[in-house]
Design brief:
single chain, about 290 residues, alpha+beta, Cathepsin D, subunit A, domain 1, Pdz3 Domain, 2 domains, six-stranded mixed beta barrel, six-stranded antiparallel sheet, about 25% helix, disordered N terminus
Amino acid sequence: MTLRWLTLIVLFAAPVALHADEPKKPDDKKPEKKFNAKPGLVPFRLTDTHHTLVRVKINGKGPFNFIVDTGCPVFLVSEPVGKKIGLKTEKGWAILDSLEMEGGLELTKVKARVETPFQIEGMNGMGLAGVELHGLMGYTVLAKYQMDFDYTKKQMLWTPLKAEPLEPQPLKGAKGSTAGMDMMVGLVRILTFLSGIGPPPPPQPRGFFGFELEQADKMVRVTRVLADSPAVEAGLKKGDRIINVESKEIAAVSEVLQHASKIRVGQTLTLTIERDKKQQELKITAGEGF
């Protein structure tokens, strides 16, 4: 009965509101500042478990591997990484001075949760992803962008949004669910132990080389070599065709990236290139950074 009367009130009140003569207010609004944030291309890769992985730097340190997780409500940093880069926490939370994504997009003063979820602990402990995972990139970061995914490419287009995302709301009964989460963590640890797999190694960031590639007709060529990069020091040049990586013939950019992703800082990536119809071997010692 109450709902019916409320509907009638709304229906009859609406025309009055529409036809009422409202006094005109002076147009004293100040012009809004233009929003000039530019979109950026964020490189990504798929893990062995088919999760989307991006690399980030936290407070200038890294890079670290983060899973793009639309179901995670926060930006979540694993405890080993938090300890490694010296994050100061209060009740498990930290404020990141800077969060830089590979490709150049950067956020400042990002609130992050520092803990190791059982998903990350389990995947690292069993080596399921094929790479060490360092955290989850969740809602509080992702909601700041419009993201265009194209899994036929190795880059996503992230366009910054003007509006700030709403604060994530805790689920009802979340306090009671803590025991369940703890049980899952314990179960993962037991399964890892029984599988004979030890704890994951400390985070080891992937090396930086400083060159970009393109693929055409099963040929991979260098399109750009960054200044003051390990690639420049090794003698790599724009236009070089990459024939072999680590003595294995390649025909796709993804194959080069697959080999390069296994190289850590200080290790060497060996390329066989073709330049001016002549082949030569180059050794690039990986540096720190993206």
